[in-house]
């Protein structure tokens, strides 16, 4: 499939698959780069999510799932500026705690900002799925804001514990 997508520069679909089943909302992805090629033909690739879709029919005869999909459109919405700003601030704090580096190039007015920020964080896949399934940017930003507001204190505590452990384990 990857070889086919690379040769034709065509996207492929991504769905969340869990032990209890497969999600019915996913998104197309385009391959943006090949990081590494292995002798056995495998590839490490970079992708970018594109268009959300809902599966209307799933064909499971082949290990490589295929299906029929309908592409999903967003409802018009105007994200609340205060919520968007708070979401970005929380994202910046979480990103810094996780990666030790301040994130750059965040455009608060960018369409699909919630998708972009959620993609950059190692969030639980079910949370990412919830964001993907929402059909307006305002709702996605609000959901991400609430998630980050709950997650940031946990990251801060974890960061503090790591710092203490690296310093010999003493409590300062």
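Sequence proposed for the structure above (172 residues):
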């Amino acid at each position: 499939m990857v070889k086919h997508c690379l040769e034709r520069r065509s996207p492929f679909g991504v769905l969340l698959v869990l032990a209890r089943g497969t999600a019915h909302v996913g998104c197309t992805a385009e391959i943006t780069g090949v990081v590494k090629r292995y002798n056995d033909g495998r590839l490490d690739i970079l992708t970018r999510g594109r268009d959300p879709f809902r599966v209307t029919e799933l064909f499971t005869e082949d290990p490589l799932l295929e299906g029929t999909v309908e592409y999903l459109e967003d409802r018009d919405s105007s994200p609340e500026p205060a919520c968007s700003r708070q979401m970005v601030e929380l994202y910046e704090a979480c990103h810094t705690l996780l990666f030790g580096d301040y994130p750059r190039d965040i455009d608060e007015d960018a369409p699909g900002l919630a998708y972009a920020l959620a993609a950059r964080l190692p969030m639980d896949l079910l949370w990412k799925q919830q964001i993907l399934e929402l059909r307006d940017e305002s709702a996605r930003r609000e959901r991400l804001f609430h998630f980050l507001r709950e997650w940031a204190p946990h990251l801060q505590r974890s960061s503090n514990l790591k710092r203490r452990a690296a310093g010999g384990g003493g409590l300062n």
